[in-house]
Amino acid sequence: MTWLRQGGIGAFIIRRLLLGVLVLVLVSILVFAATQALGDPARAILGRDATPASLAALRAELDLDQSVLGQYLSWAGGLLNGDLGNSLAAQQPVTELLGSRLVNSSVLVLCAAVISIPLSIAIGSWAALRREKAFDTVSSSAMLALAALPEFVVAVLLVMLFATTVLQVLPAISPISPGQRPWDVPEGLVLPTATLVLAVAPYVARIMRASMVEVLESDYVEMARLKGLPERTVLIRHALPNAIGPVFQVIAINLAYLAGGVVVIEYVFNYSGIGSALQDAVVNHDIPVVQALAMLIAGVYVLLNLLADVATILVTPRLRTRL
Fold first, then answer.
1. Average pLDDT score over residue span 227-239
2. Sequence-ordered list of residues with C-beta below 8 angstroms from that of 263, at least 6 positions apart, any chain
3. What's the angle, vertex CA 295, arms to CA 71 and CA 58, rounded to 5?
4. Cβ contacts of 24 within 8 Å, gap of 6 or more
5. 173 φ/ψ angles, rounded to the nearest 5 degrees
6. Is 187 in contact with 282 (CB distance < 8 Å)?
7. If DSSP codes are grouped into helix, strand and coil, which group holds residue 131?
8. Which percentage of the chain shows pLDDT scores above 90?
């Protein structure tokens, strides 16, 4: 294993992958323990009037008569084999139940990410270049105000402005019916996407501004200017690559937040995604669905952090030389 301790991006990725696997194992234990606290699924399905015999029969059918350790090992083994189990409420495989909802949520998150990331990087960079001038003052104040607002407040404000009392140009809730895809009703994506963009962009823009200000004051940027390089070349080749490295970490955290925080936005706009699926699963004590969604969000967190670390090293020259 000595080669893992040696330099190189490949060894770094392997170390992070091993750490990610360890994190997912620990998360799986916590998720399994937490879902046990939701109560007895057999009792939730059959109701309070169920007889002991019917409860025992259903527990045996659902493999709930095993020990806690046996249930965990059975569930973890199913995860490794791609078997997420069957929904207790819908009586169908979890993969089939969540398939279309995952597509809908992925489209929403992707639209928000494609808009918010370039926009926030551009705002932060330009604010740093125009430091202490009108654009910097206005944008910094606006980003701070947006960062202080919870996403559901932003959602309600957008609904009031564009769907009810003021303009009435967009639907207040997502009109996506079962069997439809988000791109079939594009107007239903506008307000949820705008809410997520306004929830994520302020954090990335503020970090980008701070990072760019620090880089613009560095010695190597000053040296590049003294060499007579055009300001555009100094910014693109020297300032931006070193400034954007720390921002990748914030982008990863916010994208992971989108994967989990989309639950609230989907509820506000009645959007058919994993948010409504998670809500229904908790209410119905549908433990396999809750476990599957929790592990999915945890896996997204681990993957995005790995990608952010790799991207930070690849775009930051001074970090590449340390591997």
1. 79
2. 274, 275, 278, 279
3. 35
4. 295, 298, 299, 302
5. -125, 160
6. no
7. coil
8. 10
CA angle 67, 41, 288 (to 5 degrees): 80
- Tracing tokens 């089939």 back to the chain, one arrives at 96
Segment 300-311 mean pLDDT: 83
One-letter amino acid of 300: V
End-to-end CA distance of the chain: 17
HSE, CB side, 13 Å, CA atoms: give it for residue 132: 1
Q: Give the dihedral of Cα atoms 243, 247, 249, 250; nearest 10 deg.
A: 160
Q: H/E element holding 290? A: helix 287-315
Contacts (Cβ under 8 Å, ≥6 apart) of 318: 242
Q: Report the amino acid identity of residue 57.
A: A
User: For 86-141, how does the pLDDT look when each residue is reduced to its tens digit (9 = 90+)?
Assistant: 887 777 888 888 888 888 888 888 899 899 999 998 899 888 888 888 999 999 99
Helix axes 9-36, 68-80, angle to 10 degrees: 140
**Location of structure tokens 């929790």:** 294
> For helices 187-216 and 151-159, what crossing angle results, to 10°?
130
**Cα-to-chain-centroid distance, residue 140:** 24
Residue identified by tokens 């990331």 is 117
CA distances from 126 to 32, 100, 121, 134, 214 (A): 46, 40, 8, 11, 14
Q: Give me the domains of the chain, ranges plus CATH numbers.
A: 19-80 (no CATH), 101-320 (1.10.3720.10)
Q: Which residues contact 258 (CB under 8 A, 6 or more apart)?
A: 109, 112, 113, 196, 200
Which of the given ranges, 9-23, 131-145, 276-290, has the highest pLDDT on average?
131-145
> Residues 6 or more apart from 279 whose CB is under 8 A from it?
263, 267
CA distance 305 to 27: 15
Is residue 259 within 8 Å of 297, Cβ to Cβ? yes
SS3 at position 317: helix
Distance CA 12, CA 10 (A): 5
